[in-house]
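Fold this: BRCT domain-containing protein
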Amino acid sequence: MVAHEELQLFDQCKICIICSKDLSLDTAHQLATTIEEQGGESLIYDPPATFPPLHEFTHLVSTTINFPTFDAANDALIPVVRPQWLHACLNKRKLANPRQYSPDPRLFLNDAVVTCGDIPEGDKDAIIGGVLAKGGLYSSKITYMVTHLVDLTTESDKARIALSKKLNVRIVLPHWFDDCLKLGRRIDERPYTLPNPEILRAGPDAPIRSIENRDIVGASTAEPTTLPTPRPKLDIFEGKQVMLSTDLGIGSHLLDSITEIIEEGGGAVTSDASKTDILICRYREGLAYRMASKLNREVGNLSWLYHLITYSTWTSPLQRLLHYPVSRTPIPGFEGFKISLSNYVGEARSYLENLVAASGAECTKTLKQDNTHLVTAHGNSEKCSAAKEWGLHVVNHLWLEESYAKWKLQPVSDPRYTHFPRRTNLGEVVGQTRLDKSVLQSLFYPLEHKSETRAGPSTAMQNKDHNVAAGKETVSVQPPQLKELEEDGNIAGAGNTTPAGKSRKFSDHRKLQTPARSRLTSEGKENDTPSSTSSRKSKEAATARLHEIAPDIALYEKEKRRVGGVIYGGRRRTDEDRITINTKKRRSVEPQAETDDDDDEATEAKRQKKSKPPVTIHLLITGYQKWVGNLKKEDADKRQLRELGILVVQDARKCSHLAAPSILRTPKFVNALAYSPMIINIDYITACLKKNELLDPSGFLLEDKAAEKRFGFSLEVSTSNAKKNMNNLLQGYQIYCVETIRGGFEAFKSIVDTNGGNCSLFRGRVAYQTKREESDEDSAEEDNQNRKEVYLLSSVAPDHQRLWPRFRQMVQDTGKTPRIVRVDWLLDIAMSQALRAADGYELSEDMADKMEE
């Protein structure tokens, strides 16, 4: 029996092992053998080979997040784990929680196993909650697995055991965890290590040592001046198409040198934005930048390209702030700031100086009374004393990094930005702030059509000089699905690209530059706040991206239709990036034939727009297998449906009809039920497409008696209940959810919110508070509706059980009753649209023990 269980440990798991400098090919083969011996499937990915289809895998094993599909794996909710996860699974004889083994540096305690000695109970609870939230583990006993013992002295029982048995464990003061959690970064433990911690014995004026920072090596500037020498074996560009934008402002000699390096490394230089795998540009603007970003290509600047050439190791351009193209405009609110630096040395200082310039502020070598901010690594310096006397803002570098990353001025009153651990030089954690693709998308390549096609007056003025210098150059906007139409033609534009093997004169490039040095890198924006993930499947994300690039596709098709095509045609009045300076003068010099052609085309576009039938059905679709992995068919089918009067939507709030193959427990299906749509079989879509006509959906009503019996509800009754509930079924309910719940917190929060309830994340240290945002009369009415029970969605997993006592205490302190329930309680309520008692779903320690037996 034991042998059979060992074989089935990784049953139904297909695991991709990603090689890197810390995970060699030999080690990967050893891990693959272990996986296969335990009944799983494995595949080894050795960069820079093409990454296999992501949706095939259940887990990715990697020691780093620096591989091209990390963000896509996060979006698809595929766990990325370190190799230690496999060993933990083998030791436990069951699949371990992947979150504790994530290589994501934002979970900076993920390699820490912590136990507490003789410290106050309140500090103990706070440390346990913080460790778990940042990826670490807590052990109630001192074992060989423990890495940190939190204690006040070395005289406690646990400390004596650790010293007597010579365990490899650091005995640290609670202050270390406190400072790490306040900063949101892991700092060096040495000043806090017992028996003789530096923070207790060093004088206030004692110098603070600085530690070499490797996070910003090769990433301290957005504008490198020298071409690096590539490693002997440079294969990072193997099979890659690289596009070099003209806004880089590089001469023909350097361009040829870079092209030669890329080609020697197995890559190729292209000038087609739709075919490129990597776009290298200076600014976050232009059609090529937007298209490459929307197509999910890698977009970086010259500094990032040089980093790849130097180390021949893949890193994401989003990992470091100055590896991504900058913005021409300052961070809102940074205009007029004069910022000085103190206590940062070497490359860390150079990095922060360039970051200040990229943010749009002025960096001063000396501190004067007209300065506005002092960014310092610690509080012990003459500059700090003078700044406080003059009333300047004294902050650490996290304020600057996160303002740049979020492209928003952060408040200096935030305690994270004014915290300086006593014996720590914060230069050791410079450069750890990461960019967030969602922030870049919302501000630099938004998905809405209006933001792409209608530039406001301020945008027009900002880009005026750039567009005039660009003249009549165009950019390739050929979408993937149109490639076969132009196989024999060179659909390449010159507006934002440098053609392979050719170069423009350097004097032409200078026209695109801004004279002021402080503005050469005066744009940057990223976000280090981890974005929340939804439970959308990867195919839906891919479909969304296809719709996002629709404006660029339309622009390409328009360019191709007119005389001269994409290559030889000039810009037209209605072009997206065209700025009209003098309309009357422009009309007088334009050929009459082109003007007539514009009018005819506009008339034709209006006629086609008017010919579309009105939308009669807003259709939400889930579980339609014919579109899985076939984006071209999905896009074509959706266009055909729209011509029939059926608009496919993604938001449950906007749907009038829901199509599914059966009753499903997907977030789309469950959320849509609350809006009482007509629920039809997925065959309705196939029938409409086949006959190319709008059929009566009432003839395709969904019937699934087996699922209704299994889940204990009637679809007809549920739809009727939803009309009566009007999204208020859970009004007054306060529901918490553990962070690592299967299915994801965001999925369950959306269900609760859709049904009028209030859902919050519970990490073991959240205080229960009643919202008081309304008037006194409204608040009184809300109190009458609030229930006496507070619910926690959980499972019997050990890491979930550890949160139960804290949840009970928190709720009981408010005079209410805690109820810990399975997620089935919420799902059954949402699907039946009727309240259900929690008794049959409640969890307890006794029940958990029986389930383990």
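The longest strand covers residues 14-18. The chain is about 35% helix and 10% strand.
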